[in-house]
Amino acid sequence: MSTQTCNDIPAEAERKPKREGNRTIKRQKRQNTYNVATWNVRSMYEEKLNIVQREMNRMDIDILGISEMKWIGSRHFRSANNTVMYSGSNTHRKNGVGMIIANRVSKSIIGYKAVNDRIIYISVRAHPVNITFVQVYVPTTSAEVADIEDFYSDLQEAWNDTPKKDVLIIMRDWNAKIGKGEEPGTVGRHGLGNRNEAVERLLEFCEENALFLVNT
Q1: Which tens digits make up the pLDDT trace of 184-216?
Q2: Per-residue exposure over 38-68, b if at least 16 CB sit within 10 Å of its own CB, e if not
Q3: pLDDT of 67-123, one tens digit each?
Q4: Which of 58, 97, 153, 205 is deepest in the core (most CB within 10 A)?
Q5: CB under 8 A, 24+ apart: contacts of 25-34
Q6: How far apart are CA 203 and CA 199, in angstroms?
Q7: Reported pTM
């Protein structure tokens, strides 16, 4: 599937700061950063979308990755001054991933790709390099091995399609628990608890692509 653009969705112009001083400085700093989060919603009906967007606004989130939307098909649309993108199964209400992009970021979106019902990613214009955000919903440890391998194969293909100069951020739901144990260059020293079976395949993917794991 080719990358889709959002040029048909108008972005509202941001107001310029009217006051000088600390408030203006804080606002200017905020304009140079993105607050990013991810949420497994366990299904997204219309009223829940409104609730999620209210929480997103309350917590000042710019880019929210969604898992288990359970919507059919893939497209993007405007809702409450945000841009909603989603990628789901063509036949069943299962899995499903998406992203909700705040208005101030929408005009910086270069494009997005709805890969399948477990992977979606967007490219955002930034300085000094662009950023690619990938939202995933990984099969659980009870899934068939073939399904898990198919997922990582699709994720690797998405990785290969990403411009190498971009900063890449892959957001979960990984369905994995890292636990204790440092992996130099991949996992830090401050994990908690015990690892589960899903971690080994995740660590292998990170090591193969020089990715650092910060949260699962």
Answers
A1: 889 988 888 888 888 889 999 999 999 998 875
A2: bbebeebeeeebeebbeebeeeebbbbbbbb
A3: 999 999 999 999 998 999 999 999 999 999 999 999 999 999 999 999 999 999 999
A4: 97
A5: 31/104, 34/62, 34/63, 34/105, 34/124, 34/131
A6: 6
A7: 0.84
186-214-173 Cα angle (round to 5): 115
Residue 208: C-alpha distances to residues 121, 195, 205 (Å)? 20, 20, 5
In residues, how long is the chain?
216
Q: pLDDT for 126-177, tens place per residue?
A: 999 999 999 999 999 899 999 999 999 999 999 999 999 999 999 988 888 8
C-alpha distances (whole Å) from 68 to each of 27, 174, 196 are 34, 12, 21
d(CA 155, CA 165): 18
State both tokens at 111. 């494009």
